[in-house]
Amino acid sequence: MAVSVTATLAPALATSTATAAAAATPSTASSSAATGALNRYVKQKPQWKRCEADTPAEFECATIKAPLDYRAPGGKRIDLAISRIKSTAPDKRRGVLFSNPGGPGGPGLHMPLGMQERLPESVRQKYDLIGFDPRGVGRSSPVSCDLEPEEENWLRPYKKATFDKDVAWARDVANKCKEKAGDTLPHITTRNTARDMDLLRAVLGEKKISYVGYSYGTYLGAVYTQLFPGRADRVVLDSAVDPARAWRGMIQWWAEGAEPAFDRWTEWAAERSEQYGLGKTPKEVDRTFWGLVAQADEKPIEVEGQPTTGDDIRSGMRGAVFTPKYATEGVVELKKAAAGKPASAKKLAAFAGPEEAGTAGTAEAAEVPSDNMTASFWAVVCGDNSAAWSRDPESYRRDAVEDKGRYPLFGDFASSIKPCAFWDTSREPATRVNNKAGSLVVQNEWDSQTPLPSGQALHAALKGSKMVTVLGGEGHGVYPSGNACTDGTVTGYLVTGRLPAKDVTCRATAESNAEAREHRKRDALPGSPLPQRAPDRF
User: Fold this and answer.
1) What is the pLDDT of residue 526?
2) d(CA 45, CA 205)
3) What are residue 301's DSSP bridge partners?
4) Within 10 Å of residue 450's Cβ, how many Cβ atoms?
5) Residue 266 needs a FRET pair 20 to 30 A away by CA distance; which of 85, 197, 238, 462 works?
6) Which helix (H) or strand (E) covers residue 370, if one does?
7) Intra-chain end-to-end CA distance of the chain, in Å
8) In contact, 98 and 209? CB cutoff 8 Å
9) Residue 431 has what DSSP assignment?
10) What is the tens place of the pLDDT at every residue in 396-408?
11) CA of 315: how far to CAs of 1, 102, 353, 442, 536, in Å?
């Protein structure tokens, strides 16, 4: 049986993969040679084994080889680490459910563990749960730029006095990446990860895959449906990226999306002025906040010996403001500290200075370079679409100044210079998403990382999609959340394959928003079906 499946799938993989690559860049290999090389990849048989001694026996891992460059499949190879938990009811099994937690640069190997815990039994009966570390990430031939922790701090506020240093930092990061991994990084892209997914599909002997992707994973899923529309079965895209804004425009969404959330917060806090004392009107609350920023700009506000600058406050508030109660409690403590009164450092955590990036705390930390998440992040964010990034450093200065005026909370952080200004030209153009494959886009109204208009844009680009909007929904990542409307709609689609007849509007519940707040407190969720709550990732 395996032989016949391989015979059927290998030519299709070779043809569609070669065609997808050649559409942008002519292959250097003949089509017959490329097909033969890809046939050898398809014929691999996963050697499944228990992933780790401290994980359940049913959680199995394997390593598959893939071409670094799909245009030259006979060349250098890389590892793809994959995992699975088999269907709980083989007689009801439909196929495989792939997943991605977000990023770019987020490891996904442990996703099936969280899926097993959180997804309803009706879904777990239907699918083998498949996780994988995307190419260049985690255990999939991880990349590194040999960056120091301070070099990984990339969301930097614009200041005239430090802009030249920021330009030097961006140039140094790009140069270090090129020196350390210049032969590999150009191939760590979303399009190639989508091709890897299709290779894994063929190796697993499946005609199609179903998929649940969060945040960056929605873009990966959308690109997969664009390259391989006939291979996509049931596709859920949760907390969605606007494909037309990958990637500089998506970072700028963080600033644009924060402003209406800030206005909502001032109204919320004003309505509760007796409880919190931040102001009786939205304007008074606004003045209280910006007064604290100005004070911290003059002299950092200290809590338990930890200084908090005005830039720290603006940066922290950008994410906190999407959950008004969380933001309000933080500002109350900040106000106490500014007046020299005892304050809770725990409630001020959102406004703390930048933490070191990296993979510390993940199961594979000992095997993975400390800067892997950052190196793979830049590989995708810069390499997916180099045309989105100006090569003129002065243009970033102008944008940062202008956007700080338009979006005072975060505009300069989002628009100032990044290493992509000095990155090499992309090997392929960005993917234009405009297919009719069936999919379900799921979106909270108040999402700090992928604001509602971003999800609406992906829905519009995917002509065969339906959308679930959660009015009043807070947090990044919707499914599953305990909300009967959203969970029921998504689960129903995964189990039956039937999309809703029309777009669905659900209302957030206190419980589902509390679930979002609980996820905010977790530093890393390697086994969760929801994305890691990093404020500088998708």
Assistant:
1) 43
2) 10
3) 308
4) 31
5) 238
6) none
7) 40
8) yes
9) P
10) 999 999 999 999 9
11) 56, 21, 9, 26, 10
Asked whether 79 and 140 are in contact (CB, 8 A), the reply is: yes
Catalytically active residues, by annotation: 215, 447, 476
Using DSSP, state whether 119 is helix, strand or coil. coil
Cβ–Cβ < 8 Å for 101, 477: no
Strand, coil or helix: 521 = coil
**Sheet holding 60-67: strands in order across?**
49-50, 60-67, 77-85, 127-132, 95-100, 209-214, 232-238, 439-446, 465-474, 504-507
- Pair 452, 477: CB distance under 8 Å: no
Which residue carries 């907390």 as its tokens?
239
Q: What's the pLDDT score for residue 515? A: 72
d(CA 144, CA 176): 9
Q: What percent of the chain has pLDDT over 90?
A: 81
How does residue 3 score in pLDDT terms, banded at 50, 70 and 90?
A: very low
pLDDT digits (tens, 9 = 90+) for 60-113: 999 999 999 999 999 999 999 999 999 999 999 999 999 999 999 999 999 999
Query: Six-digit token pair at 81?
Result: 């680490």
Lookup: tokens for 473 = 């929904």
Q: Which residue pairs from 249-252 have beta carbons closer than 8 angstroms and sit at least 24 positions apart in sequence?
A: 249/388, 250/450, 250/454, 250/538, 251/381, 251/414, 251/418, 252/403, 252/414, 252/415
Return phi, psi of residue 190, to 5°: -65, -40
Token pair 């309803």 is at which residue? 120
Characterize the bridge pairing of strands 77-85 and 127-132.
antiparallel
